[in-house]
Amino acid sequence: MHNSRRFFILAALAAIALASPAIAQQPAPASTKVIGFMTDFDVKDDAVGICKAVMSGIAPDVRIIDITHQSEPYNIAMGARFLAGTAPYFPKDAVFVVVIDPGVGSTRKAIIARSKVGQTFVLPDNGLLTLVQDRDGIVEAHEITNPAWMIGTGISSTFHGRDIFSPAGAHAARGDNISQAGPALDVAKLVRLDLKNATIDEKGLHGQVIATDGPFGNLVLNVPAETFAQLGYKLGDMVPCELAGRSYVIPFVRTFSDVPVGRELFYIDSRGRLGLGINQRYFSSTYKVGEGAEITIPRK
After folding, report:
1. Beta strand pairing status for 218-224 and 204-213?
2. Which residues pair with 255 in a beta bridge?
3. If you write DSSP's letter for every residue of 40-79 in order, what string do you get?
4. What is the domain extent for residue 61?
5. Which of 278, 284, 239 is nearest to 258 (CA)?
6. Which residue from 130, 165, 144 is spatially nearest to 41, judged by alpha carbons?
7. Would the CA dihedral through 240, 242, 247, 248 be positive or negative?
8. Of 158, 189, 220, at which residue does a domain stop?
9. How many distinct structural domains can be found in the chain?
10. Mean pLDDT of successive 10-residue stretches along the chain, which has 300 residues
11. Domain annotation covers residue 228
12. 162 and 238 share one domain
């Protein structure tokens, strides 16, 4: 009797499901377009909030993800590095609004570009796209000249983040064709930064400090892991080097806790580059070494 009741209950549930195809076959909701927003504005005043309000006013359904607003002021190379580092974690149809713009109000172009991946970038033509272009390729670019893609006729000479980049990014995010933004540009002629990776010759590796790692004071080197591997060092090896004119011998390890607190280490960072730090200390301030310092490492 118990088995019979269970059979009839299951049969009834199956009949209800078959009779309600509209419920069973509802389409998945459309995905919300994402804008990745990065500036060197900091968050001490209202600039970031104003830009977000402009974007939301044009594309109310857009989701804005802050990459950072504390990129070092005027440091285009840092912005290019952050943009290339974060783009792979965003959707393939994401829009990026990036405002690191020491040339604001000058003859530099405001542009909108699309990569082979499908992502869209709204930013000044000052080299911010260099690393994305090298890795992903840029297939289309336009200068933003259409007033309909801007905030209006009263364009400030000092706040293009509000007046040009934010509205243009919102238009792209809501699905407007980027060709409407303005005339097409030759992608081969976009402004590029002169960024170089480390080189290796018979004397060893020659590289450079390109940044410090956030608040921790670790040194970011222009040394991809595969380039460092050509020197022959393995995990656990002691690595001699000359950094900013001073000689060191530092262990190459997997992570910070592999050395005692206060001890220096070489490691491969989360972006796949050789890094140099001190466990729970600040290499840059301890040794007064920063961006631009040169490093040489001999072959093993």
Report:
1. antiparallel
2. none
3. S--SSSSHHHHHHHHHHHH-TT-EEEEEES-SPTT-HHHH
4. 34-189
5. 278
6. 165
7. negative
8. 189
9. 2
10. 47 42 38 88 95 96 97 94 96 98 93 98 97 97 96 86 96 96 98 94 95 90 96 97 97 97 96 96 95 96
11. yes
12. no
CA distances from 280 to 219, 235, 264, 268 (A): 14, 20, 10, 17
Q: Please answer whether residues 235 and 267 qualify as being in contact, where contact means their C-beta atoms are separated by less than 8 angstroms.
A: no
Q: With residue 221 as reference, give the H or E element that holds it.
A: strand 218-224
Residue type, 171: H
Domain for residue 213, yes or no? yes
What is the spatial distance between Cα 207 and Cα 156, in angstroms, rounded to a whole number? 41
Q: d(Cα 222, Cα 228) in Å, to the nearest integer?
A: 10
> Is residue 184, in this structure, part of any structural domain at all?
yes
The whole model's pTM is what? 0.83
Residue where one domain finishes, among candidates 120, 155, 189: 189
